[in-house]
Amino acid sequence: MVTITFTNSKSGKEEIFEPINPQNVRLYVCGPTVYDRAHLGNARPVVVFDILYRLLQHVFGKQNVSYARNITDIDDKIIERAGIENVAIDVLTRTTHRWFRDDMAELGVDYRDDPRFFEPRATEYIDEMLRMITGLIAQGHAYEAERHVLFSVESYSDYGCFSGRSVEDMIAGSRVEVAPYKKNPMDFVLWKPSADDQPGWESPWGFGRPGWHIECSAMSHALLGESFDIHGGGADLKFPHHENEIAQSKCFSPNSDFARYWLHNEMLQVDGKKMAKSVGNFFTVRDLLDQSIPGEVIRFVLMSTHYRKPMDWTQKKIRDARTILRKWHDMTMDVSAGTPPHAIVEALASDLNTAAALAELHRLASEGDVQGLKSGADFLGLLQSGSDGWLNADPENVDSRLVEKVEYWINRRAAARADKNYSRADEIRANLASIGIMITDSPNGTTWEQDLEHEHLGNWEMLE
RNA sequence: GGUGAGUUGGCGGAGUGGUUACGCAGCGGAUUGCAAAUCCGUGUACACCGGUUCGAAUCCGGUACUCACCUCCA
Description:
The chain is of the alpha/beta class. It has helices spanning 40-60, 76-85, 89-106, 126-138, 167-173, 212-224, 238-252, 285-290, 295-303, 315-332, 342-349, 354-366, 370-379, 388-391, 400-418, 422-434; strands at residues 5-8, 13-16, 25-29, 65-69, 117-118, 142-145, 148-151, 188-193, 208-210, 227-234, 258-265, 268-270, 273-274, 311-313, 437-442, 445-450.
């Protein structure tokens, strides 16, 4: 049996992973709020925890691991967006959810046929949330005020322990807005009133909707039980979201552990800066796919940095990943995947060291172990498809007139080469290269492809 | 102001108290009409200042810099 270790955010230390029940290993990860296309930052935890899920399945057996990743489909951002676009909330969330699933599938994260994967939508668990809120009020951890229900942070002495903050510090240094009905400025909303034109549900406290944090407590409780093994999410969720989740769940089920191991992935940056619309470096996964960057390349880049380190997204990484994957695809074209090499599993078992796992693939490649390479890559969700899809220009996307033009020039060049007129042959090759058409000679003839990042791509006028 | 993460060779990026990470790029060579690809070989490193140690890039303390989070509230 492989020993798995994780850095547990709860303790800040690397710990040996021991599941509550090896026959029922349970993982919960905070999923997206569905109001827009997933941006690249959203993709990082999805890929990181996909790797974790694969590892757990490998070590404990596929049927013994459950994974729940929620869909937040009730949220003020959703209400706002639906208003702006004048669409029904339900239409917005279902469409966005579908986009999310499709985009993530491109990155090799696809659980469509997996009975142990759960993707609960918050609005399907309102009853569970109401039950939990009622329980928290009954136990004195929450109170009603002006149609809101608030969690009382003073009722939970460990509040702040998880994220390493004291209630005093948070109030002292910062911009906590004090609502008049709050007993303590840090108290957070479990339930809030909805206007008639806002989505809502009947509750003991009037027509309203849940606060953000309660949904994850309710869904993990319903699907995985009051104690489960691993809770994951982005580092930005540590506070307040996860702190609040812990407070709610531990107060509701005082004898539970809630989540025993917490894993947080660090944030993604773009060219050294936070990805933000205001900085102008904001883009979605779909944007990248539309630029003909294969999902596999995106996945590779995301895996090349350890999950607990900030990752910087750059063009160079995309280029490098392309080069490497192209090579590996070529090497493993006719190989089918088998059991992953032990060293790959070991690398992941060591606090999800994906970069070390990729290094191991490099080692296998340089040793010519194509079977090991294919098997290891397959385990990591790479080299899934044949190389035809993206190594060469996709025939469906290439204009037949372009093919004709390129072939015309290739034939001219072949004639020149046959005449040993090499300066003419080189001139043709240089001309094609200047508009982004790269050609390569091989014993079987001349092949070509487009450099999709080339600035003069397809600019045939330049050849005249 | 509080909290956390980070700082490794041209670039990316692991790891470890004493031994080459690895990849990309570069350089030299083989091969090719020439390129490309491939193969062989090769250089460069651990932010700064102290401390612990026979020995630290790896442990401890401090400094600098970078990044993130610290609002659910109209």
